[in-house]
């Protein structure tokens, strides 16, 4: 017998039965064999040393691919665990997955890890790498695996939780060994530890087993691994830049917001400058929603639990909802984790005809989610936040044009915020989706895909990653230092219209079920603003800067003229601060630059007599003296024109859009 393997270029080649992935890679070329870290057969990643069990689609995996980096990082996590268990007597280990840009491993140890501990662990890891220990896969029965990990309760819990249906016959449990160390793992791994080219440890923190605050407190070590030392150095440089841009740090330095401990975890208060920034973003959101033909609604912060039972949130989302409040003779109320059921009630408030559709509803609605304390992270993961939610109800014939309008809206919104690089994920039907709607799912997925293809946005299909209620588009952006953020979502909902019995009267006087589109352009407004702060490093575009111009009088006698300049600029619609007080001119200029105001104006004797100013824009080395006031005003007003200055979208009032 022989294997027929189809390569990525479409070529089909026969190989002897029992060939390994490495054998096939060698047959293609010695260079590819040296670069190979694993292979992929019919969508399954396999170790190079495993015999290939069937014919099919075949590809060699190298470190210049996402799959290769994941294998590298997971192998590095095993080396981390090997080092920790060897150095810390009595320690035990839990899980150690590859994550975006790195890996981590959770341990139960007597004391939290210190920076000195991390240095010792990393040094031991490098010794293990230099020893070039082979990773060897073995399949064990469940009973043998339990005996092997008897001293490691987290591993035994994992083994006991695996359902027999989830594993292959005769391979209840797989493990990987390198010398004396053995770990529970499905693999694949690098051929040996010596194939890890560049790795370092980053930090440690506390973590709960299974993410459950009621379970064991563990210590998590984070690390990163890359295909070359150059790539690792570039990533560490990016981390340094990211630390400077951390929105929590800048939020305090620029006096934008704070997280008072009296409020509890994940709840933010906005200070005046942050409040202005927030208002500018909210105003722009409302203006765009109006331009794209949305109607505004407003809904309460809580409702009877009955509403969340109908929507299904109590079944699918209750762990993220705040506990109920007993009111009105033991009637339970819940604060809302999302706005969609309320918008559905607006739709359902009266009979709808096809002539009423599409109906586009929008709200900047505050929602509350009980995120676990371990994942709360500044504005990026909060418990109380605002969603720029919209929900559109339309007919099947209108769905394509509505999705195109939503995608156009999302791209406009992201470009206006200063992002230039976009890509999307199209998430399709998961296994847990309710049965009976396959035709609508297929139509929805094809319509979403066509929408993305027509837009020219690069996208990948995330098979099976849709929500249980419908497929979706997630828009990702790259920020100024190359990090990828998921922001906007366009989500089709095939479940809620059915749960709430939504209908419209179609032509011919027959009842039809509308399609429903969820769309959050920013997602969480707080998270969006956190990303914006980091993207711009606090130096916002002129139109969204809370303070656009600082005016600095050289001496007390120049303060009256400084106020005249300020009033002139305010008449032009600019947000202005006059920096009076006892500080020196140099101190005032440094303060304005530290606060990252887009423009600084300095006025002295010559400016008073000549109706001029000294003007410096953020990022420039020095100011330009003697600029006529009218010229400076016009220049700054032009700089402050926000992106919404375009004419209305002609499609908004077009029939069927």
Protein model, in words:
The chain has 657 residues and is an alpha+beta fold. The protein folds into 4 domains: 61 residues, Beta-grasp domain (Ubiquitin-like (UB roll), Roll); 177 residues, Threonyl-trna Synthetase, Chain A, domain 2 (Threonyl-tRNA Synthetase, Chain A, domain 2, 2-Layer Sandwich), CATH 3.30.980.10; 246 residues, Bira Bifunctional Protein, Domain 2 (BirA Bifunctional Protein, domain 2), CATH 3.30.930.10; 91 residues, Anticodon-binding domain (Rossmann fold). An 8-stranded mixed beta sheet has the order 16-20-21-28-25-24-22-23, with helices on both faces. A 5-stranded mixed beta sheet has the order 2-1-5-3-4. Strands 6, 7, 8, 12 and 13 form a 5-stranded antiparallel beta sheet that branches. Strand 12 and strand 13 form a beta hairpin. Helix 8 packs across helix 16. The N and C termini lie far apart (59 Å).
Q: Any chance you could write out the topology, listing elements then pairs?
A:
Elements: E1 2-6, E2 12-16, H1 21-28, H2 30-35, E3 36-41, E4 44-46, E5 56-62, H3 66-87, E6 92-93, E7 98-99, E8 102-108, H4 115-130, E9 136-140, H5 142-148, H6 153-161, E10 173-178, E11 181-184, E12 198-208, E13 217-226, H7 229-245, H8 247-253, E14 257-258, E15 269-270, H9 272-291, E16 295-296, E17 302-304, H10 305-311, H11 313-316, E18 325-327, E19 331-335, H12 340-347, E20 359-368, E21 384-394, H13 399-416, E22 422-427, H14 438-455, E23 459-462, E24 472-478, E25 484-493, H15 496-499, E26 504-506, E27 510-512, E28 515-524, H16 525-536, E29 549-553, H17 559-571, E30 576-578, H18 585-594, E31 599-603, H19 605-610, E32 612-617, E33 624-628, H20 629-639
Parallel strand pairs: 1-5, 16-20, 22-23, 29-30, 29-31
Antiparallel strand pairs: 1-2, 3-4, 3-5, 6-8, 7-8, 8-13, 9-10, 10-11, 12-13, 14-15, 17-19, 18-19, 20-21, 21-28, 22-24, 24-25, 25-28, 26-27, 31-32, 32-33
